[in-house]
Amino acid sequence: EWLLNVNGAFIRQMLDVYQERFGVLLPTAGTILDMGRTLPHKTIVVEMALSGMNTQQIARRIYHSPEAVDQYLRAFERVLVLRHFGLPPKLMAQVMGISLNLVEEHLALADKHFPTREALVQYLEGRGVSLENAG
Predict the structure, then answer these.
(1) Where along the chain do its domains lie?
(2) How many CB atoms are located within 10 Å of the residue 104 CB?
(3) For a FRET experiment, which of 45, 57, 61, 122 has its CA 20 to 30 Å from that of 68?
């Protein structure tokens, strides 16, 4: 802000426009450390995957390792499986060892992309998750 002598809100707006226009995630404290009001990078990774991008494409786009991208996607899939079996969000967070906030973000994505139980099952089975023999 002080270096460029412009308002911080203007800088944030310009970053948002750039990221949206070019489909990249710039490494800022908000995206890397999940600080502030920016959309967390874990959520962005899942959105990119659900739009059809593969791990390598996502990793290049957001400046993360493919291993980190796969880790985010596995956590999302685990939340989906636990949702399929009816676990409440607090228990999901405990079982997975992640924050309730992250579970809720993943559940919001699930609501957005999988409006029915059948859509959820179809996605999981498409990812190689077998729900038949479980429980």
Answers:
(1) 66-135
(2) 14
(3) 122
Rounded distance, CA 123 to CA 129, Å?
9
User: In sequence order, what are the residues at sequence separation of 6 or more whose Cβ sits closer than 8 angstroms to the Cβ of residue 124?
Assistant: 77, 80, 81, 84, 131
pLDDT digit string, tens, across residues 13-51: 888 788 777 777 777 766 555 555 445 678 888 999 999
Least confident of 26-40, 81-95, 97-111: 26-40
Using H for helix, E for strand and C for coil, what is the string for 19-41? Answer: HHHHCCCCCCHHHHCCCCCCCCH
- Contact of 120 with 109, CB cutoff 8 Å: no
Q: How far from the centroid of its chain's Cα atoms is residue 92's Cα?
A: 16
Q: Phi then psi for 121, rounded to 5 degrees?
A: -60, -45
Which residue in 31, 28, 50, 49 sits closest to 41, CA to CA? 31
pTM of model > 0.70 = yes
